[in-house]
Specification:
Length: 167
């Protein structure tokens, strides 16, 4: 059984996938079928109602979803991720700390997606690091403000080099 918390327009919905064709949405049971049409498009049959939907992943837990012509940004987390997020969120109010993010491996800075002073959400892409001919998307480990960026696009970094600080 998979438990998810889906946030849409500042409201949270609890979804439990019971098996391959049953789920509950806030404790109401539904029969479902999901048919992929192409990469990001699906047909969802929910209790004999059919919905066309398109989804695009914006970051680790944020999606842009278009259902029957209505677009929303949706946050999808497992129940465990949601508990961890709430714990981090509540502790963040009591402790203002700085988090230094270091290069996990040597490489070349291809793109800096966030600048000093910008708000960043946990899991949001901040820097693209090329290492061994592969692009690595370095994401914010916590929500906050980018306080410092220690690198420039095109610069080479060694493993452990400070890339940016979140405060």
């Amino acid at each position: 059984m998979n438990d998810f918390v889906v946030s849409v327009d500042n409201s949270k919905i609890n979804i439990k996938v019971l098996n391959e064709n049953e789920l509950t949405v806030d404790d109401e049971k539904f029969i479902y079928e999901l048919f992929p049409v192409c990469d990001h498009s699906f047909i969802l049959k929910l209790n004999n109602k059919v919905y066309e939907l398109t989804s695009e992943r914006l970051n680790s837990d944020l999606f842009k979803v278009l259902v029957q012509g209505y677009q929303s940004e949706v946050i999808v987390r497992t129940a465990l991720q949601e508990k961890a997020f709430k714990l981090l969120e509540s502790s963040a109010g009591f402790h203002h700390h700085h988090m230094n993010v270091k290069a996990p491996m040597p490489g070349l800075i291809l793109k800096i997606k966030k600048n000093v002073g910008e708000q960043v959400e946990q899991g949001e892409s901040v820097i693209i690091l090329e290492a061994m001919k592969m692009e690595n998307d370095l994401k914010a480990p916590a929500s906050g403000i980018i306080e410092e960026v220690f690198v420039k696009e095109g610069s080479a970094v060694e493993k452990g080099f400070n890339l940016f600080t979140i405060g």
